[in-house]
Amino acid sequence: MQFVAYGVNHTTAPVDIRENIAFNPETLPDALVSLKSQPGVAEAVIVSTCNRTEIYCHIDEQSPVDIRQWLQQYHANDVALIDDYFYRHHNHDAIRHLLRVACGLDSMVLGEPQILGQIKTAYSDALNQQAVGKSLGRLFQHAFTVAKQVRTDTAIGNSPVSVAFAAVSLAKQIFSSLSESTALLIGAGETIELAARHLHDNGVGRIIIANRTIERAHNLAMQVDGYAINLSEMPAHLAEADIVISSTASQLPILGKGTVESALKQRKRRPIFMVDIAVPRDIEPEVGTLEDIYLYCVDDLHDIIEENLQSRRDAALQAEEIIDTQVEHFLSWLRTQDAVPVIKRLRENAEKHSAEVLEKAQKQLEQGVEPQQVVNELARTLTNKLLHEPSRQLRQSGSDVDNNLIEAARNLFNIKDV
Q1: What is the pTM of this model?
Q2: Can 297 be counted among the known catalytic residues?
Q3: How far apart are CA 139 and CA 146, in angstroms?
Q4: What is d(CA 159, CA 162) in angstroms, rounded to the nearest whole number?
Q5: Which of 218, 281, 378, 387 is 20 to 30 A away from residue 200, measured at CA?
Q6: pLDDT in tens, 363-389
């Protein structure tokens, strides 16, 4: 049996290729059943996200299965057009690849944590379809443990590397407790949505979302326990905000110095932390000259992000060392599994011999034979039966030049001196 990993990701295939071979939640159960039914496929997990589609299998080494061909047939794709985009990993390399993916080392954003949750979901889906057994199940559980170790033992997840995350991290540095802070988010695009989620996850007290389209603002507000206002209402709510993050598509500033000065008077000089992510800028640069205003633009955040990326790169080197060690640990476990069938058969043989001599002893006792004689005979017979075949094999191996079997017997039975 061998492990294989087969797939594409954001570095090997453009989005149109990734779209053609992706699995959505509705089709994934059927795909797992179909893949598991292929000759030689003992276990299978399919990981499918916007940045990657990967198939992990435990297959018979003599299996005729062609994962590439199955994928082509399932999606009705021309394999000649997509084959160059795929990577294939076997055994040691497949194990190492899964561990790197789970730790975020193979992600578009180095060290991002979302991929681990996506892999756990993929594993759960495979379990639900009974597509995972002992070996692949153990590998994925090992990957989850290693990812946790990397998060704990390195700083790979400590430094924000997205604009939204960097903005929220700066806010946490300025305000001792976000639970007592109100955040005003201007816009409702992807960056604002990410900022809203980060703030919500960090326990911010209140979230106000201002947008030209009130319905879009309302939809986002519902997801983060906030409330929505129209962009025209924003000046009236500015004094409530301790944190302002803005990212709109406006060609002109929507927040001027005068409006901010009025809000500061109402706040009695309590500071406001502002992040202007928009290009062109949403907040007039002059606002940054006001006392009690901490204004950052997107370039300021990019400098922070670049520093943090370097920090993650350094942490990634530590993570790679952890992964190398953990790959060997998993391979050691695999090697122990080769002994399981032998141990099972050895015990079965021993139990068979025990049953035979015990039955004979019971008959002797029923016939009135002295118990001490029966016990002595039982011990002698059982010893002879258990050691007969090993002794024969060892005597026969005595003529071998290298005496490998004899040396193995010394180790197996912990024989120090002969």
Answers
A1: 0.62
A2: no
A3: 10
A4: 9
A5: 281
A6: 888 888 888 988 998 899 888 888 888
